[in-house]
Write a structure and sequence with these properties.
This protein has 727 residues and is of the alpha+beta class. It contains 25 helices and 18 strands.
Length: 727
């Protein structure tokens, strides 16, 4: 859009072309002014419509913070006046309740799975790539941190948001094979004070006609972001601390009417089609005060066509804005503070009671109520008599216990949720049942978190397809928990954006109950002890896991290297080996079957037929065979090139051959062959080949075992990377 300008007609004669351009600029300027006025008007109306709801948010936040002797007067939250000589004790039971709720909402990361568009190999690979992109983005952009922020606002106000957007100002130096690329997908958690919707009866944010995201920016930030769109003489118009979310909930002093404007109001309006005549197809517009600095008139600029906001609800209210359980806890908190304050007052009076004194018996000005103080009593007057102070009744104590039980029932946080076992309950099954009952109390909230996460994940993949022109470096953990890194672009995931969140995956799990179940399975022999220890996933056992899993990790890394081996290199190596065999056969003047009758020639040919990835003497062959065959049963293996699949088979056969050869060597070194099977004894006598076409090493099995490891093989394989392998 061109900047508005005016030109004095007396300065120069305007051509028809200049007149046309000036007229178009004036029409565009008038249209933008009307659009900016519409956005500002809708913002004011939405803010006014939810004023009562926002006031309740301020009260909730004040009670969470501990300011619990407050009241709302003419829209201002103020402290109630203190009564002289009265105790105003504050025992904040709302904050720990909210901390527990936030922990329950965020203790488990929802499990995401991408559904392939079809059973075609290309779509299955795209689904795998989509899962890797989501895992990488959620980790690097700290999605869990944003989820905690949104959970805080959902717990205190009833509504939380996560915004997914494309940041075109960021430069990704790792993208495009190290050459870099502009832009990234980022997540933020705007407060409910910053998000405005018009229809307060519609619960789903996607069914709103528009959503306005309001925030303030300093003049320096505005000029840096929008440049020439801002006139040079533009001045601040709003007070940043009071315009969006007023500071009264922080210090309870109300707005500072004398504060000077220091910022500009920025309104980011996301509009669905049909919401306004100014954007008939929908779109997005950014308004700084009354200046349109950006607008998209052909629909929402993101290809997914949704608002970039995922909403999290707490206690459903039947309308758009859910409520917080704090609203139900506030009366109990007030009553609890009142009862505890009365207890303190009675205790103070009991420790320093009043006295009945005959008038003129003592000099009141000298009475200090200090310990051991001597007060002279005039002769003829009676000694002072202490007043009998009333004691708190048992009903008062029972009232506190009742209030505590009400807190537990209303918040859904009973003893078992706080780590305490109810009296008389000792069975693990019963404890797990009680925990599940407390968790089911918040089932709608967990479902809302899962739905919000699914929306964020889908929009993440959609933005990647829309904006990733260059390959981006994606680091993620594979199915076998081995780290991999690869470059992915929009074409790799365009058919893998249908991501789903597993239902119930956001529910918190009891580690104690899980540990008890695994230990029971270990004791019953259902699962091996070492696998059970891995399933326990105890942090203080990580060093032990690293020791027992070193062979598995090695085998998993070999799987990654084999599956990513270039087919062309494998073919060239095989062709070269075949050429060497043919040259030897031509020199000897015989065919291969005759040549293999000679043990030396057979051993040479077997060396040429070895897999590209060698087998090492120090490998745990049993573990390697299991991990390789485990991968060979997966769908990922089925989608590999047949040449790569054949390399897997040859590598496993080599492990089996070396394993058998080492077993024979151990038996020979044991000095006995009496218990040896007949076929193995015959094999040693004849110097025959072991399964897979690998020799036992002629008359010396140990020598054959060393040669079978691939030492001296000119095709000994894929280059060993210095760092973690790249899948």
């Amino acid at each position: 859009m061109k900047l508005p300008f005016s030109k004095n007609s007396s300065d120069t004669e305007l051509s028809s072309e200049n007149l046309g351009e000036e007229l178009a600029d004036k029409v565009a300027l008038l249209s933008d002014r009307k659009l900016a006025h519409w956005v500002k008007d809708k913002y004011d109306k939405c803010k006014q419509d939810r004023m009562g709801i926002a006031n309740q948010w301020y009260i909730n936040l004040a009670f969470y913070k501990g300011d619990q002797y407050v009241q709302l007067i003419r829209g201002t939250l103020i402290n109630t006046p203190e009564i002289p000589n009265r105790v105003r004790l504050k025992i904040n039971k709302i904050r720990p309740a909210m901390r527990t709720q936030i922990s329950r909402m965020t203790s488990q990361k929802p499990t995401a799975t991408v559904v392939p568009g079809s059973s075609e190999d290309e779509d299955i690979l795209a689904a795998e790539a989509g899962e890797s992109v989501w895992e990488h983005q959620s980790e690097t952009e700290e999605y869990n941190k944003r989820l905690i922020d949104a959970a805080f606002w959902a717990s205190n106000t009833g509504v939380g948001y996560i915004k997914t957007e494309w940041d075109k100002t960021y430069f990704d130096k790792d993208a495009n094979n190290g050459e870099g690329a502009t832009g990234k997908i980022k997540y933020t958690a705007p407060t409910p004070f910053h998000i405005h919707v018009p229809n307060l009866l519609e619960r789903d944010i996607e069914d709103q006609p528009f959503v306005i995201h309001s925030f303030t920016m300093t003049m320096e930030e505005v000029r840096a972001s929008f440049g020439d769109m801002i006139p040079p003489d533009k001045k601040p118009t709003v007070v940043s601390t009071n315009e969006i979310m007023e500071t009264r909930y922080l210090n309870l002093k109300g707005s500072d009417s004398n504060a000077m404007p220091d910022s500009c109001l920025v309104l980011e309006a996301w509009v669905k089609p049909g919401a306004t005549e100014f954007l008939p197809n929908g779109g997005m517009v950014i308004v700084v005060d009354d200046i349109v600095v950006y607008k998209s008139t052909d629909g929402i600029p993101y290809s997914h066509g949704q608002f970039p906001f995922a909403k999290i609800d707490d206690v459903l209210s039947g309308g758009y804005y859910s409520t917080s359980v704090i609203e139900d806890l506030i009366p109990l908190q007030k009553e609890y503070n009142r009862n505890r304050s009365q207890q303190v007052e009675v205790r103070n009076l009991a420790s320093k009671p009043g006295y009945f004194v005959q008038e003129g018996a003592v000099d009141i000005s000298k009475w200090r109520s200090a310990a051991g103080q001597v007060i002279p009593v005039k002769p003829g007057f009676a000694n002072p008599v202490p007043m009998q102070m009333p004691q708190l009744s048992s009903a008062h104590v029972q009232e506190l216990e009742t209030t505590n039980r009400d807190f537990e029932d209303i918040s859904g946080q009973h003893q078992v949720s706080k780590g305490a076992t109810p009296s008389g309950v000792t069975a693990a099954t019963a404890i797990s049942f009680l925990q599940e009952q407390d968790q089911s109390f918040m089932a709608p909230t967990y479902t809302s978190i899962e739905q919000a996460t699914q929306k964020v994940a889908k929009q993440t993949l959609s933005l990647a397809v829309q904006y990733w022109d260059e390959p981006r470096l994606i680091k993620a953990a594979g199915v076998d928990q081995s780290m991999s890194a690869r470059y992915l672009s929009r074409s790799d995931i365009k058919n893998g954006t249908d991501i789903r969140i597993e239902g119930g995956s956001a529910l918190p799990h009891s580690k104690a109950a899980r540990t008890a179940m695994i230990m029971d399975l270990i004791n019953r022999g259902v699962i091996p002890g070492d696998k059970g220890l891995e399933m326990l996933d105890m942090p203080n056992m990580r060093s032990y896991y690293a020791i027992i899993k070193v062979d598995e990790n090695h085998a998993n890394r070999e799987n990654i290297r084999l599956r990513s081996a270039p087919v062309e290199e494998i073919q060239m190596a095989r062709q070269e080996a075949e050429m060497q065999k043919q040259a030897y056969l031509e020199q000897m003047g015989m065919d291969e079957s005759m040549a293999r009758e000679d043990p030396v020639v057979a051993q040479l040919f077997d060396q040429l037929d070895k897999p590209m990835l060698p087998v090492n003497d120090w490998d745990n062959h049993e573990v390697h065979i299991f991990r390789h065959q485990f991968f060979m049963k997966s769908q990922a293996f089925e989608m590999l090139d047949p040449i790569v699949q054949e390399e897997f088979v040859k590598h496993v056969q080599e492990h089996k051959a070396v394993q058998q050869s080492q077993a024979l060597t151990e038996m020979m070194m044991g000095g006995t062959t009496g218990g040896m099977p007949e076929d193995m004894g015959e094999l040693l006598q004849n110097g025959g080949a072991i399964e897979g076409g690998n020799p036992a090493g002629g008359g010396n099995p140990a020598e054959g075992a060393q040669e079978s490891t691939g030492a001296g093989n000119q095709f000994s394989g894929i280059e060993q990377p210095a760092e973690a392998p790249v899948a």
